[in-house]
Amino acid sequence: MLFGSAVVVALLVAGAGNPSKRPSAPTPAGTHLWLSYSQRPVPHDLMPKLPFELKSTKVVGASGFGVFFPWAENLAIGAAAAWLAVIAGLGWSPSRVAVLGVSAVTVGALLLASSHRGIAGAAAGALGAFCVALVSLPLAARLNQARDSSLAQLARDRVAVTAEIAVSADPRPIAATGPSGSARMAVDATVTSLTVAGRPIRAGGAVLVLGPAGGWRDVLPGQRVRLDARLQPPLAGDLLTAVLEQQSDPVLVGRPPWWQRAAGVVRAELRRASAGLPEPERGLLPGLVDGDTAGLDPVLNERFRVAGLTHLVAVSGTNCVIIVGAALLLLRRFGAGPVTCAAVGLLVLVAFVIVARPSPSVLRAAVMAAIAAVAFFAGKADASQSVTPDRSIHQVKRDFSTVKEQLT
Q1: pTM of the shown model
Q2: Per DSSP, which regions of 308-380 are E strands?
Q3: Which residues pair with 207 in a beta bridge?
Q4: Same-domain status, 157 and 252
Q5: How many CB atoms lie within 10 A of CB 371?
């Protein structure tokens, strides 16, 4: 999610910097425009008949997605730069990652200024630098909290504490069992307050709670919990601040937000609907639909991980397409317009993210689906506005037929 946001924001920032890449004035008659699926020149005097405005005249090789958009060729640069920065930064100190981020901002600004003077490659370099900055600066903050905060220091000392935490995700069963063979749970949470030997400590950070399964089965994200635990340092390279080894039963404090309670009802009903299935299908079906693996056998879940098949029980773009697509088909069946479809589609997408929980895979799929929905229906709206009483749909079809004849 962090990387995806970096690419989108940097694309918007750097895209304004190079005048040579912006949509230019209408091309003079006689100039040849290239279409990606043909790579044959089309006389420009045919183009004014098309019901849309061409944004670029570059060739798209074999991509097959129509006319090439100016910044698509530079996305790979931003992607590679962001990934390399994260991979390298995970092994660096927080200060070093922060210096990298600040330096990337400086370099990106200089390259963006150079792109205004038409220097080749400057705009692409600016995009890569901004992507590095947009992932490095938040990563530096996360690393600082995970390694140098007061909670991290207490974890290295393995101090016994009374902690109040806010649960971040649904408790999940783990394959390891307790001393008597009892089931155990792992719970992602954030520390909100901490008491050491009766003295409150200002500390916070992302933690992992390990404890018996009994007290965690019906706990929802957003629920605040108080418990006694012993702090442990996390595994090397992890962005967690500490691990809490539970030493008392969890005590619920307050209630989770209403939207989490509503999502919990939906997930519980799906588990109830699949209760009649035999194992392991009973625990697998909710995971395939909304990523709920609470009822999945921990051993089977581990086998999925070893085999590289965890994506089967993780929400992805396929789930978003099915849910949003079904809603949009229903809306179009009743004659809803593009704006209404886009708005309702985004609301359905937000609701699905809440039900499926905003894990990285869910957020990535949701962001891509949202961009696709807005772009598609914005395009549909533009196309509908271009067809006027003086220019019927039949004329538009004839224009496309003319272009096709020229290409063949």
Answers
A1: 0.68
A2: none
A3: 189, 242
A4: yes
A5: 12
Token pair listed for 405: 């004849």
Specify whether 134 is located in the same domain as 210. no
The domain total for the chain is 3
| Domain extent at residue 97 | 2-22+70-147
d(CA 17, CA 40): 31
Give the C-alpha separation, 147 to 94, whole Å: 8
- Note whether 220 and 295 are same-domain residues: no
The reported pLDDT for the residue numbered 118 is 77
Is 239 exposed, middle or buried (CB count within 10 Å of its CB: 0-12, 13-18, 19+)? Answer: middle
* Better-predicted residue by pLDDT, 115 or 192: 192
User: What is 85-100 written as a DSSP string?
Assistant: HHHHHTTS-HHHHHHH
Angle 322-324-325 (CA atoms, 0-180°, nearest 5)?
60
pLDDT in tens, 25-42: 444 443 333 333 334 444
Q: What is the DSSP string of 100-154?
A: HHHHHHHHHHHHHHHHTTT-TTHHHHHHHHHHHHHHHHHHHHHHHHHHHSHHHHH
Which amino acid appears at position 161 of this protein? Answer: V
pLDDT digits (tens, 9 = 90+) for 212-223: 988 898 899 999
How far apart, in Å, are the Cα atoms of 309 and each of 176, 300, 317?
A: 21, 11, 16
Phi, psi of 195 (to 5 degrees): -125, 125
Q: 367 vs 2, 218, 358, 363, CA distance in Å?
A: 11, 29, 11, 6
Mean residue pLDDT across the chain:
77
| Residue listed under structure tokens 């496309």 | 400
Residue 135: name the closest of 28, 5, 13 by CA: 5
| Cα gap 201→162, rounded to integer Å | 10
Let me know: does 223 contact 256? Beta carbons within 8 Å. yes
Would 354 be classed as within a structural domain? no
How many other β-carbons are positioned within 10 Å of the β-carbon of residue 105? 17
CA 73 to chain centroid: 22
Q: Mapping DSSP to helix (H, G, I), strand (E, B) and coil, where does residue 310 land?
A: helix
